Structure formats: structure tokens, C-alpha cells
Amino acid sequence: MRKKRTVTAVMLAVLLLSVVVAGCSGNKPPAPSASAGAASSSASPKAEEKKLNMKMFMSNSGLAYPDGVDPSSNPYINIVEEYANVDLDLEVPSYTDFQTKFNLMLSSGNLPDIVHSPYPNETEQRADEGAFIDLKAYYDKSPVVQKFISPKMMEMAKSASGHNYRIPMSYATRQQGDGVIVRYDLVVKYNNGKMPETVEEWIELARKIKKAEPDSLPLTNRVIDDQAISYAGLPIFYWYGAQPYMYRVEGGKVVDNFTLPEYKAAVQVMKQLYDEGILDKEFATTDSEKYRDKLKNRNVLLNVNSADQLIPNGLPKEAGTENQEKQFAPPLKQYPSVLKDSKYAQPKSLYLIGGDSLYISAKTKDKDRAWKVIEGFATDKLHEAIFWGFEGEDFKVENGQKTPIEGQGMSNKDRVYKLQLGLIFGFYDGKEANIAAAEKAMDKDEFTRRIDSLKQVEDSAKQNGLALGDFVTLSPEMSAKKTEANRFVSQATIEAIMGKITMDQFDQKVGEYKKKFGFIYDEYTKYMNENKDKLRQLGVNEVDW
């Protein structure tokens, strides 16, 4: 099951910058024309080509257009239009309205020429019904797209029915790994800058903060749908190698973390912290909006997130957080004695592609030209414009190296919307430009600490390899059961932490869970054993754990 890791792809653009068919018939999609991709490498339209009007539906990925900016005509989308020789009419709903409008569009069967969707499962289901075409023949003749999307990534992007309906977003340059993020300024203030080395030492630091600042929330949480424990609710579970809603491979078998002794031990620690007031008393009801406010204003010491969220950039810190410094906590020197192996408390590498993808409607008037639009999103010219800007305006070249102009490029808040067009090379591919801007703007020591902590996490993730769960595709029925299982885990965990059930009753809940949902990870084990050689070649090291 390709599990959402800490944040959904469509929101990564926002977070990265804040630390920044029912009417379609037929089962087989139409094949591309014989000339598919024949002129793919051309950087400009042929003289005899007529400019076409085409429609596109896409998400803004959480980045709204500023007043006065036309989604269909601005310096960035114009690069795509010029390359494909089209006039694009873009429909870009607000982030909060996107899924509703997307579902309505799919149901109506009234599809535009090109569609961007972050929901591959739903979109591919409609594609199997004839809504979208298979793009493999186009891809095979397109060095422009192949530069960012490798054959391995296209293999990963295949639908359950074996089709390449989508050109996925690349995650290949995404900063690897995840981990426990700490407010280092609080470590400096209350622990003389020394990072704790055990869970007990971290708890003692949290106590110091709470005693000195009674209104602080050293540990809090964020509730997300069926997953009631996430982000700042995860650090203890992370260090115990047993995060909720996840698994481990142990002795050649995929085991549900909820059933592990390490999970129970982490729940007991969380209950202790709840009883002491270290853990937010509202941890079971804190939604996303409240969570952001608490992170900003209540001195939250720890949270868990992916490494790309700590890529430094040239943007100023949000008002009210100027003195806050975040970096990854180093690995513990001593892990809890109940933990069987510290590798279970270490990060893994991230999947090479995201859910965000581009599709071509079977109803488009010109499939070849629609493909040119997709290629337009993979051009070097657009890549540079998004992540560096325009030479002389956003950056200058000194000794052969691009240097950001202060306040421009990715540092210009009025142009952050351009990042939503990184639909092929990915929202993360501007790491180099971001870091270059940050090095000029950030405090030197803080910058060095951030980079060092990122490298440590990435090195560990690369050593551990990719996660098996990113390759397992569950049936719709099994996915529904996984959601039901997540709700069970959420309720039992919350009740135990709050003392509404005893730990003996929690054990009974685990037994009940095994009977009701144990078959889910049996499916993972079956998939792993049937595909071990392939998974090893792809870099899934845990198949041999």
C-alpha cells in the first residue's frame, strides 16, 4: 500500500516553503497515433503547426495565485504554452475545493484535454473505463520527459491493470528520510545546547520546559482523519520503533506495529506524559488549524516529519517564530531496552514517485499536442524559471555559478505560486536553489546545523533502503479494511493514553485487533515473499530483515 508519509504530496509545496467517468465507454484506452512523440525533442513548434486552444484541470497544491495573476497567462505557464504551441485555459480550483470538483468532473465525463490529479487510484479506475489514454508509447519517444522520469519510475507508476496512464511527479531528488524534529532553541535554553541521548533524558527536558513555562506544550499531536496520532504525537513511538498504522519486517514476516510489545511500551510512556501534563490534554482533538497554532505559539519541543520539510530556503521566518530553530534530533545513544533492534527506529528512503500525475483525456481533440503540453512541464526552461527564476531578475551568474538575488527567486513570496507547476520534476527539485538562497539569508551556525542534521538523516535512510509498504497495492476492499483498522488503532491508543481503559484492557484490544485485521499484513507478507528478488533489485532492503 502506497502509504501517505507524514504529509500528502499536494501540501508539500506549502510546508516546504514555510520553513520553509461515468460517461466514458470501452475498457481499452485509445492508443496514441503513429506519430506519437515524433517531434518530442523539439523546443519550439513547427512552422506549419496551428496554435490550438486546449483545456487543463489542475490543483494549485495549496499555493493560491496572488491577486492579478492569471493562471492561464503568466511568465511560467507561458513557457509551457510556447513549447506546445497552445493557448491553455486552466481551471485551478482552490485547494479545499479541488477534490470535490475533481470527483464531479470525473463523474460527469466532461473531461478537459489534460488533467493533473494527486489521486492515482481514483483516476486510474476511470482510466480503465476509458477516460484516459495509455502514455507509454509517447514516453518511449520523449527524451524531454525521460530526463526526469526514469523507466523504473514508469514501472512504479503502472496501474493495477498494467497501464501507464500517468506521468508521475518525480521524487528522485527529494531529500531522503524522516525523523524527530526538535526545537533546538529550547535545547539551548533549557539544556545548555546538549541534545538528550535517551528517551528518559528527552522527557526530563520536556519537564523542565513545562515547569518553567506552564502554558507550553512540549508534546502535542495532530488528528488526521482515521489516523488520530501523527506529527508531534509520534516522537515516542518513533524512538520505540513502533509508529502507529505502520509495520515492520521481523524474521521474514510483516508484523503490524500495533501488536508489538514496543507499541504497548510507547503507549505507557505517552500515558505517563499525559498524566503529568507534558502531553497536550487536547491531543485527541487537535485538528490541523489548531496544530499549526500550537507549533507556532506553544513551544512544542518535538515532532516527526519528512526531511524535505527542513530544507532551508531564503524565505524569512514566519512572524512570531524568528527565534525558533528546528533541526533533526540525532539518533539516540541508548534506545529503550524493549526495542528489538534500533534499525526499526531509523528512517527509510522515500518512494521515487509521488501521487501527483499528469493524464491525457481520451476525449482530447489532439492527443499529440496534449502530449506536447505534458512535455512542456518537463522542459529545462520551466525548471530554471520555477526554481531559480530569470537571469538578471532573480539570479546572476558569477564564476559559472548561479547566485540568487536577495529577495527574488524562491525568496519572492509573490511568485511562490510558480512551484505548483513543478508537476513532473517535482516540488523538491529546487533544493539546490533553496539552499543557495538560505546560505545567504540564514545565520551561518544555524544553517550549518540544519545541513548537518539533514545529511545524517539522509545517510541513514539510504542505508536502510526503500519501504516495502510503498510497493504493496491493496484492493479497494482491503484498503477499506485498512481504514477501519486505523480507526480501531486510533481509538484504542487514545483510550489507553487517557486512562479510559487499563493496559490489561489494551492487551484485550490488541487480541481483538489480531482476529479482526491480522489478515491485512498477511497480504503484505505474501506479496513480499512472491516478489523478493524484484524488491531487492529496487532497493527494498527490509525484505531480508
UniProtKB/TrEMBL annotation:
Transmembrane segments: none annotated. PROSITE patterns: PROKAR_LIPOPROTEIN (PS51257). The keyword Translocase does not apply. Keywords: Cell membrane, Lipoprotein, Membrane, Palmitate, Signal. Residues 1-22 form the signal peptide. Pfam families: SBP_bac_1. SUPFAM superfamilies: Periplasmic binding protein-like II (SSF53850). This is Aldouronate transport system substrate-binding protein.
